[in-house]
Specification:
The complex is a heterodimer of chains A (339) and B (266). Chain A has 14 helices and two strands, in the order αααααααββααααααα. Chain A has 339 residues and is an all-alpha fold. The two termini of chain A are 30 Å apart. Chain B is 36% helix and 23% strand. In chain B, the strands form two sheets. Chain B has a six-stranded mixed sheet with strand order 6-7-8-3-9-10, sandwiched between helices.
Chain lengths: 339, 266
Amino acid sequence: MRPGVVSEEPVRPVTTTQRSLQLARRVLGTPTVGPFIALVLAMAFFTVKSDNFLQGQNLSLVLQQVMVVGVLAIGQTFVILTAGIDLSCATVMAFGQIVMTKLAVVNGVNPLVAIGLGILACVAFGLLNGGLVTSLKLPAFIVTLGTLNIAFALTHVYSNDETYSELPSQLLFFGRTFTIRGTEVTYGVVLMFVLFGIAWYALTQTAWGRHVYTVGDNLEAARLMGIKVSRVLLSVYVLAGLTYGIAALLLVGRTELGDPNAGQTTENLDAITAVVLGGTSLFGGRGSVIGTLIGAIVVGVFRNGLTLIGVEVVWQYFVTGVLVILAVSVDQLTHRSRA
Amino acid sequence: MSSPAPILEARGLYKRYGQVVALDGADFELYPGEIVAIIGDNGAGKSTLIKALSGALQPDDGEIRLDGQHVRFRTPADARRAGIETVYQDLAVAPSLDIASNIFLGREARYGGPLGLGLRLLDKRRMRREASTHLAELRIGIQSISVPVESLSGGQRQGVAVARAAKWARRLAIMDEPTAALGVNETRQVLDQILRVRERGLPVIIISHDMPHVFELADRILIMRLGKRVAVVTPQSHTMSEAVAIMTGATQAELEQAMTKDEPEA
């Protein structure tokens, strides 16, 4: 027999410095505060540097540039909350985009049906990712690295490396704009905000959302409390596929093309960057989709602002790289202080 | 024994892992309103026994009866559906969720009507209200029901786990070394909570290494050795050192006597 486990916890007097440190940590630990401060600072910086930045027309352009990455990042948030990651998101979107444009342009399929099939193709990839993660218990990183390449190859095979233009108007709807008080608003941006609203509701106001957080937070506890972990994970990847399909439609609306080379440079990293900048932890179980929205806008503000002040495109990659490493470092540090 | 029929009863449980026989015909009874402690050296089979009773594993042989009915738990969910809740030593909580969410984890309350059925809207207010009433009944002191569990001390977290088990257990609660990870004061709090759970009429099975705690809490103490129940003693019938002697096999002669003295007729 071993003696009872005795670990006396010393009683420390709490000093004011400690208290303000605790307060600072709590404020910074609130998921959306950090990203929001980053957004305000970035906007202030570019407002000072460029007269054109804080114009209604330019901000509307920023949102238009953000809408594709924003919607991708919704699905990515679901996956990262479960402590997974989806590297295939933008290439799956590219595949969906090629499916819907080729069917509509080359095969003469009813545009709405073509859109539906394109989205379905992305959902199928979500099902494949989720199925491999849950049934074979493979790490999401490896599974989605595999499906990234599969989607990439299928995109080029299916399109024969052709680009599809002169798309039917239904495919272009979400790139269209309407005007509120002289400012143009893109329908796709409205859809993005609606989708963020739905995702927020699902994550915070339903049992499913609680279970998504729990699976990422403490997998064993989720299992012991009778949560059907595999079903939750599968639903997360399938819903992520659905958001990539919708992102594909938004991409088509914006570029007015079916382009086999789309989604292969910036979107993949930008979507992950948006989630991480938005304060969602790569360790899972913590974060919010509202943070992701702010994170996506921060990424968009940087890309737009750097262009406005005449910074070369390659340096935008550099800045995004620095941003994502910074955000992950903050996540790592707060995670360590919690453990 | 004055109590009429056991709530939970196991006969001849047998479980082997390869060459290792973890349970070698173990018996078990739990009577209404009592706390039974299971003690035994490492490898004596107490964890295996508790896992069989809570559905975490299936014995190769033997039978389990709940209220006299033969039951077979294939998963912990089966046991839970039958009214058996378990508290684990490693704190099965979701640290980032608040206390109410943790108490309702996997059993969230939704609004009735179209809000709940159609929109799956959680009734957070009801969950918070029920959770705080419940914590107050068990006198688990917590400042706010809506703080994340990670901001609580280890003792408070385990209090949340105990409260969760007590809330949902209709037949009995199993506590698997609930204080193993806790400090002195926190252990005291959790022990008091367990006593309060019994006061509310819920029988409890507890595994613990800590003899003073076992002797303070338990109505009966089941001693396991080499995969078998070798004795059932009470804090009145035996001293701690006698119990330890039985547990380690130092006192062989006493076993027969202990068995006949305390084992009720099946």
